[in-house]
Protein 1
Amino acid sequence: MKLTQWLEARLARTSPPWTVGEVRIYPGYLLTHWEDAPEDSRLRQLSGWEAFLDLVRFDAAGRFRPLRGAPGLRKGWRRGPLSIADLFTDLRVLYPGAMAILAAWETERLGPTPFSMTARRQTGIYEVTRQLPDEDLPALVEQICVRGCLRHPLWHLPAPQPDKQEGLTLLCPEACHYFLHRARARAAA
Ligand code: SF4
């Protein structure tokens, strides 16, 4: 099954609106920030691709957003109505890989990669992360992932299992480069 078909079927399983990270999808498929109402006439219609990329890349203060999963998406815009293919593309830009990961996780085709394995693969400036003591991981996950990211890390848990959740959770099966970058400073200290 194609991922667009999976997304369409996945949305149909639950009642709208559907929330993904900081966005909300309304029937038709209309996309807004979750704190905005789609009928609000003050919302800016974001039709162009450049304007959408700008929204995703920069926060309200014009700062680059290095971590797409971090909260801080600007409000005040609307996209759509969109085809399911365009909705999928928008979600892929907002939260890279998230729908594919969720589809694989829910059909038990994806296992998390333990941090030790990710660290062992690193070379160059991130090689030092191999030295990070196991006991330092929980605090780093709390600080970087739990407090600073909307994705739900799976890779630091002993044996996470797919649950029968209804929400479109942003899952994280492997420590990302942003995490490695921050962990590197701790490992090198
Ligand atoms: S490792 Fe942490 S910060 Fe990076 S994407 Fe996963 S949950 Fe977010």
Protein 2
Amino acid sequence: MDTPVTPGFFTKPEHPFGDEFITLRTFTLSDSDDIVALCQDPEIPRWTTVPTPYGVNDARTWLNAQVAQWAGGLEASFAISETSTGALMGSVGLFRDLADPTTSEIGYWVGAAFRRRGVATRAVTLLCDWGARVAQLQRMRLVTLIGNHASEAVAKNAGFRRVGEVLDYRSERRPETSSHVTVWQQQYPAN
Ligand SMILES: CC(C)(COP(=O)(O)OP(=O)(O)OC[C@H]1O[C@@H](n2cnc3c(N)ncnc32)[C@H](O)[C@@H]1OP(=O)(O)O)[C@@H](O)C(=O)NCCC(=O)NCCS
């Protein structure tokens, strides 16, 4: 059972959660080799902030940073693993909007071998439900670079509504980078 906390503050769940196909669990340092292997696919750095080239030191640095992120409560990143095998399939995370504790942005990637089976759509749906329940989020934002049709399909399938395009989008996490994006949003009732 999750413990209710301050709105917009992410508390690390005690147990993984998910369904018969995917499980969301927190990352551990032992995921580094699998993350490196999956992130060699150029589609991941093409559409996300994952750097390229991407090596084991990048993965370890990111995994170590997750410990601080959970302590700070503003980001909640999860490994997407296959429920039947435990294989790492991807990553999905919520990032609190600093100006509005009831809003978070969601980001994700799925390894090439696991795509087009509904993995990302399930992961986004599960994590948004978790964020609404545990961190009392009321609004989820999803931002897709223009041309990322697979991610647009995920947004639609997960129930997001297209808000519009932004020519000079700068995320709070990377204000130095400007991108042309489509912004999507989903509302959750206050609980
Ligand atoms: C986007 C991504 C996460 C989707 O993962 P996934 O597990 O394959 O997603 P799903 O299976 O839930 O849904 C994929 C949808 O995209 C569609 N799709 C896939 N490739 C497509 C393409 N080139 N053009 C149009 N639609 C495409 C699929 O048909 C499916 O939609 P449908 O179920 O309505 O048919 C994955 O492709 C990925 O990791 N890409 C690189 C990183 C990335 O783009 N991250 C998101 C940044 S916003």
